[in-house]
Specification:
Number of helices: 1
Shape: rod-shaped
Oligomer: single chain
Distance between the termini: 158 Å
Strand content: under 5%
Radius of gyration: 46 Å
Low-confidence stretches: none
Order of helices and strands: H
Helix content: over 70%
């Protein structure tokens, strides 16, 4: 009877050792799997961040191009107005000079 009790204790210790060993292996496998998942998620987040930065840069570039075109159009419009005003003023100046010359010398 004592022999059977000792044998059952030894078997129980062996089973406990196997359970501990299996639990340790399972924990290691879970740890490795979690590390792989973390690395995968980190790479995905980095890629998403890179894509987002490229998208934001592209949008900013497009917005600046539109703004530049608007500024160029405004500048061209302002220059055209100035040219028109200068042409009118030049004609007025020519007429004023002719009027003075003719007025001063035309009555003689």
């Amino acid at each position: 009877m004592a022999y059977e009790i000792l044998r059952s204790i030894v078997e129980a210790e062996e089973r406990a050792g196997q359970i501990v060993k299996q639990a340790t292996e399972d924990a290691e496998a879970l740890k490795k799997d979690a590390q792989k998942q973390r690395e995968t998620q980190l790479q995905q987040v980095q890629q998403q961040g890179k894509e987002l930065m490229q998208l934001v840069a592209k949008q900013a570039d497009e917005e600046s191009r539109v703004e530049i075109q608007n500024i160029q159009q405004d500048t061209e419009s302002a220059c055209s107005k100035i040219r028109e005003q200068a042409a009118k003023k030049r004609e007025e100046a020519v007429q004023a000079v002719i009027g003075r010359v003719v007025g001063a010398y035309g009555s003689r």
